[in-house]
Amino acid sequence: MTQSEPPSSAAGALLRLIEIMAALRTPVTGCPWDLEQTFQTIAPYTIEEAYEVADAISRGDLADLKDELGDLLLQVVYHSRMAEEQGAFAFADVADAVNAKMIRRHPHVFGSAEERAAGAQPDFWARIKAEERAAKAAERARLAAQAAPHAHGDAAPHPNPLPAEGRGEGIMTDVPVGLPALTRAIKLQDKAARVGFDWPDLAPVFAKMKEEIAELEEVAFLSAASARPAGSRPEAAAAIEEEMGDMLFVMANIARHLKLDPETALRKANDKFTRRFAYIERRLAEMGKTPEQSTLAEMDALWDEVRAQDKARRG
Fold first, then answer.
1. How far apart (Å, rounded) are the C-alpha atoms in residues 106 and 135?
2. Would you state the CATH architecture of domain 8-151?
3. pTM for this structure?
């Protein structure tokens, strides 16, 4: 067995998974639910499974991680099978593409003796990415040409054809729209920073944050002072939403300047809130109460109690 070949057990298990998915998607004998699915309906599950992988990692639960990685792998097999049904590509093409990409992106590991000796050159990453963008544009054109007969009625179109992307050639176009919003904000800001569109340090970013908070506060209080709620006035709701988005975008920028992942920071804050509220529920239960039967002042006092415990633990 060569270094590039997977162990036979891994190859066999993967082949079995591909066969299972093919059986599930086989008309008449397959699973009715699986047969109804499209790229669009499965995409939310793909995102969810990626988050569950991240959650298992954050909890250090390797048993859970094994299961969640399997679920994520299933998503790759699922999408590949649907693409194969359209004649676009199959799982083997996906694996071949990522193998080629990893070799192409690491000439200092897989390249010629000269490339390995030279090591990772400062500009090689940008050059390889540019070559990959050109290759992807050619692939999109090939898939579009392949789908063209369907558009002219030569054959029955697939109910969910692969979209032909025409997003232009700007530096932001290869940042996926489907990313979590905070993650996408970081990637967009990184792209801009690489061409010099960035603040030099944290001070102006914090100043911008204060400006955005003030603008959000202004439109929110103006709305609150109105006789009608913002929800009944589309222009007011849109203004509040825009200012909220601006504030979150600049908060992501602060995280980027601090070399932090805002998604991870927010997940940890969510976990902390969940743990602290569970403490409130336990303490209220000891008093024979539920949160619904308690006052805000009572719950606030217990919140301060658990916060003090957290601070004491941190020293």
1. 18
2. Orthogonal Bundle (1.10)
3. 0.61
Is 152's pLDDT higher than 80? no
CA–CA gap between residue 158 and residue 143 (Å, rounded): 14
Residue 198, phi then psi, degrees to nearest 5? -160, 155
Domains 8-151 and 181-314 share a fold: yes
Taking only the tens place, the pLDDT of each residue in 157-200 is: 444 444 444 455 688 887 878 788 999 999 999 999 999 999 99
How do the domains of the chain map onto residue ranges?
8-151, 181-314
Is 153 a residue whose pLDDT tops 80? no
Residue listed under structure tokens 């944050």: 209
Q: Which residues of 127-156 are buried (b: 16+ CB within 10 A; e: fewer)?
A: eeeeeeeeeeeeebeebeeebeeeeeeeee
Which pLDDT tens digit goes with each residue over 228-250? Answer: 665 556 888 899 999 999 999 99
CA torsion through residues 182, 184, 188, 190, sign: positive
Tokens of 104: 């192409």
Residues 6+ positions from 9 with CB-CB distance below 8 Å: none
Domain 181-314, CATH 1.10.287.1080 — does that match?
Answer: yes
Sorted by sequence, the CB contacts under 8 Å of residue 63 that are 6+ apart come out as none
